[in-house]
Design a protein that fits this description.
Strand content: under 5%
Radius of gyration: 21 Å
Shape: globular
Helix content: 55-70%
Bound molecules: acetyl coenzyme *A
Order of helices and strands: HHHHHHHHHHEEHHH
Number of strands: 2
Mean pLDDT: 97
Strand order of the largest sheet: 1-2
Low-confidence stretches: none
Oligomer: single chain
Number of helices: 13
């Protein structure tokens, strides 16, 4: 029977139709999706921390309201994604346990510190910009709940990206100190943003199979290139320099050439040795432990409701 089910699965993928939670799927497909969706959900949740650090120090009520809404959106994205993972049989409590014991990853980018308020703008512009570039193709991912979650997430990320750009554009119209603050921030975030797309294709163990399954629609290097091409004109419009001496338009390729990110830094961050890994996970662990009474109360309440006639 598995042969027929496998054939049906293969046909669905070949016809570019969606796999839904109740459909039969190969174990490897399920495992890959749980891995990617969990890592994605964890990234959204951990991603609240670097910007959350500026909530109490936003320079105006308007900026505080915008930032608060944005950080809350990231929490919402994490929750949709945990729900998408649950449709595959994953258990949310187990995923959280794996995040805080370090057995599941989250995006490297959130292990860098936010040193100035310009970083809030740069995260919106570059980090959310990179996230959109990576996630728009995932709206066509073969697994229904993930693809549908991505549609709403991408709409909100587009808004985040524009608010970041608007913040930076405002600072660039300000004083020399503000312009210098923006440039210094862009210099720090550019290379880590390029690393968000993952290792180069020839060192990416999962890409080939994930593309065959229609989970991923582009390779890591394709999306990195797309991001560079889309960002260069925006940097020009802002009046900032991207910190890469090798960056230049290549007429023959119809794309920008650019330098190689420092992959040893990327590997160190993935190993847990980035500037903020320990702090990010410790904060998440503390939030989880401090929330134990809420979970206990909710469980007791649900049990009482169920026992009631
Ligand atoms: N940070 C942390 N880990 C990474 C990163 C990164 N930037 N890039 C790749 N990795 C991990 C992969 O998860 C994989 O880990 P594992 O096999 O040990 O579980 C390993 O490095 C090898 O990489 P790939 O084979 O290229 O992995 P994959 O095919 O999963 O591609 C990618 C990685 C592009 C990140 C993919 O998982 C993806 O598109 N995920 C969805 C988007 C996402 O997670 N975004 C999070 C940040 S955006 C945001 O939250 C605002």
């Amino acid at each position: 029977e598995t042969g027929t089910l496998q054939a049906l699965f293969d046909e669905t993928i070949a016809a570019e139709q969606r796999i839904e939670p109740r459909d039969w799927m190969p174990d490897g497909y399920r495992k890959t999706l749980v891995r990617q969706i969990a890592q994605h959900a964890h990234s959204e949740i951990i991603g609240m921390q670097p910007e959350g650090d500026w909530l109490t120090r936003a320079p105006s009520l308007r900026r505080k309201a915008i930032l608060l809404a944005k950080v809350q959106d990231e929490a919402g994205h994490g929750l949709y994604l945990y729900s998408a993972a649950e449709t595959l049989g994953a258990d949310r409590a187990d995923l959280t346990a794996k995040l805080i014991d370090g057995t599941q990853k989250y995006s490297s980018i959130f292990n860098y510190p936010t040193r100035t308020y310009a970083d809030v703008g740069t995260i919106g512009w570059l980090v959310d910009g990179a996230a959109i570039c990576n996630q728009v193709p995932l709206c066509r991912s073969s697994f229904g709940p993930y693809a549908r979650a991505m549609i709403r997430v991408c709409k909100e990320e587009s808004f985040h990206q524009r608010q970041g750009y608007e913040l930076l554009a405002t600072m660039m119209r300000g004083t020399d100190e503000q312009r210098a603050m923006v440039q210094e921030s862009v210099d720090r975030w550019w290379w880590p943003a390029l690393m968000m797309f993952g290792p180069p294709d020839d060192e990416s163990p999962n890409t080939e199979q994930s593309m065959r399954w229609g989970i991923k629609r582009n390779t890591n290097d394709e999306l990195r290139q797309r991001f560079v091409d889309m960002t260069v004109p925006q940097a020009e419009a802002l009046g900032v320099t991207l910190p890469d001496p090798a960056l230049r338009w290549n007429d023959r390729r119809g794309a920008h050439d650019f330098g190689e990110p420092d992959w040893s830094e990327f590997k160190a961050v993935l190993r847990g040795d980035g500037p903020c890994n320990a702090e990010r996970v410790a904060n998440r662990r503390a939030a989880h432990e401090d929330g134990a009474w809420v979970r206990a109360a909710a469980t007791a309440f649900a049990a009482r409701e169920q026992a009631a006639p």
